Amino acid sequence: MTHKSLTLRFLLIFGLVLGSLGLYAQDLDAGKTIFRNNCAACHAGDMKTNLTGPALGGSQERWADYGGDEALYSWIRNSQAMVASGDNERANQLWNEWGPTVMNSFLNLTDDDIANTLAYINDIYVNGQNLGGGDEGGPVVAAQESDNTWLFVGLAVLLALLSVVLARVVSNLNYMIKVKETGEQVQRRTLVEVLTSRGVIAFVVFALIVLGGYTTVNNAIALGRQQGYEPTQPIKFSHVTHAGIQQIECQYCHDGARRSKHSVIPAANTCMNCHKAIKNGSQYGTAELTKIYASTGYNPSTDKYIENYDQLERGEIERIYKKWIADQYVQSTGGMDDEGEQLIEDQWEGIVEALTNEETGDDKVAGPIEWVRIHNLPDHAYFNHAQHVSVGKVECQTCHGPVEEMEVVYQYSPLSMGWCINCHRQTEVQFAGNEYYQAYENYHEQIQAGTRSKVTVEDIGGLECQKCHY
Ligand code: HEC
Ligand code: HEC
Ligand code: HEC
Ligand code: HEC
Ligand code: HEC
Ligand code: HEC
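^ thats the input. predicted complex w/ heme C below
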């Protein structure tokens, strides 16, 4: 019996070791994802070379004398605030060396996120990115692309071998006891019998179920989540041009955000408010803007909407817009040539490609622009823009990042449940002058009496399942 419990204890330890390794790997993986999505645009992935920003290997040591991790975490969350205050010597050094290049702020990263990212940075810095020494001269068991899979496989094999040996020892001991107790020669269990014994099979099945379950759940949770998603859009619409340089208000175009669940992508008519006048762009000339006209049936040559545009043949539409493109070309170059002919063909092809859709069988040029949707919560989750923008007074950028700096919009936040909940725990509701909150009389009274200093979204029910789930 004691031998049995020995085996059990051994298997338990085996399981625990594997388990803790698993947790460790998840941290590095999480760090890797955060790094890739948020930092890799400016910081080199080998952590050793300078790019737009400095090499990150060894940052933690460099900050040790200047406020340590706490200061480093604040730097990562909001470096510009630190630079502006001028209080931290390391921040000043960095700014002297690297300014005016500005590092983005990452207010939404939790302490865990940052810890994982720094762990990942350190791992790559110390162990290198490649398996097997190679150029980096790193140790042989270094992680492949920082994911420690091979290390685990090796360890698992080692532990499995060990367990076979131990099982063998146990079986030998059992055998000797039997011989001693009964005094007769009994058949010893062979290795195959040991390996196919109930205990071992049960353990293997158990391990597979745990592993399978873990992977499935992880993948299922991440399914449909797509932080960093940055699809190519049918028109090269730039938020840098519109929201950045031209300073157009977000809500001028996304006018749903204030009053409804959805922010809404503007219809082409909103674009036409300006692009009736701005017809030939400084970046792409007629290539992109003509797509808006072909979608709405606006004839830029006559400055009129085309009658019954919906019923025109493709050839008719082609003639109208090719004429416009050709006229603009001639106007700018003084005449038509081969290059011009080619440009007209290319631009027309671009227009057709942008406004038709093979997948949905939409072969009509006329009709709305099919923007590719970037943000997408699963159907079981309920999110309302007006609640956050009008009532909660949360800035678009808090959730969507610095959109006005994005040539192509990408999903900035994870949109995971943890992300929503975290913010609801941390964010104070803006009571002052917000009539929506008149209902919460007792909180008002407590604040006035000084027994309560703040009310977070959590306090008003922001963590209740049914608020976010249908
Ligand atoms: C838009 C480019 C950009 C992005 C994105 C970016 N950084 Fe930076 N980072 C910089 C620049 C530039 C500096 C140098 C200081 C400055 O000019 O602001 C810097 C400095 C740093 C430093 C200080 C290094 C040292 O030696 O003390 C750390 C740490 C850092 N970044 C971490 C991160 C992390 C973590 C992320 C991702 C979550 C990130 N950065 C994303 C540009 C960027
Ligand atoms: C001139 C109109 C216009 C302005 C101003 C504008 N946007 Fe947009 N926005 C669009 C269009 C068109 C799209 C769809 C194409 C794309 O993704 O680039 C879009 C897409 C987006 C998306 C992605 C939507 C999705 O598919 O999930 C976000 C987020 C967004 N805008 C936020 C903002 C924010 C924040 C601002 C203000 C800083 C802003 N927009 C200003 C027109 C505009
Ligand atoms: C509290 C976080 C948060 C804030 C603040 C926020 N958004 Fe969103 N936004 C989201 C989420 C989450 C989605 C995905 C919604 C879905 O799939 O139902 C989204 C989706 C969008 C979309 C895609 C179309 C849609 O409505 O689903 C656009 C465009 C957009 N946001 C623009 C904006 C603009 C402009 C602002 C500021 C006026 C803003 N958002 C403020 C979280 C936010
Ligand atoms: C409030 C005015 C305004 C609105 C509304 C507006 N734009 Fe613009 N857009 C501009 C200005 C100004 C420029 C810069 C023109 C230039 O650089 O030649 C521009 C440039 C562009 C360009 C680049 C043209 C080029 O070749 O350089 C595209 C594409 C574009 N807009 C598409 C759109 C789309 C699509 C919409 C609707 C979702 C839209 N715009 C709405 C003012 C506007
Ligand atoms: C940047 C912070 C932030 C993020 C991220 C955020 N919220 Fe909120 N949320 C708020 C604030 C602030 C309020 C308070 C507004 C109000 O009083 O209704 C709120 C209120 C709500 C409410 C109403 C709660 C109530 O008790 O009335 C719901 C539902 C909600 N959020 C859903 C979501 C969902 C779903 C997500 C994630 C997809 C999300 N929120 C992400 C800040 C956030
Ligand atoms: C503040 C909003 C919010 C609250 C409160 C909330 N959820 Fe969620 N939940 C979400 C969002 C958003 C998702 C989608 C996450 C994704 O796509 O990864 C989600 C996903 C889920 C999922 C699917 C698994 C996953 O992680 O994707 C389950 C199950 C779930 N929620 C259960 C609950 C339960 C139970 C509660 C109450 C204790 C709750 N939720 C409270 C926003 C919320």
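Confidence is low (pLDDT under 50) at residues 20-24, 130-146.
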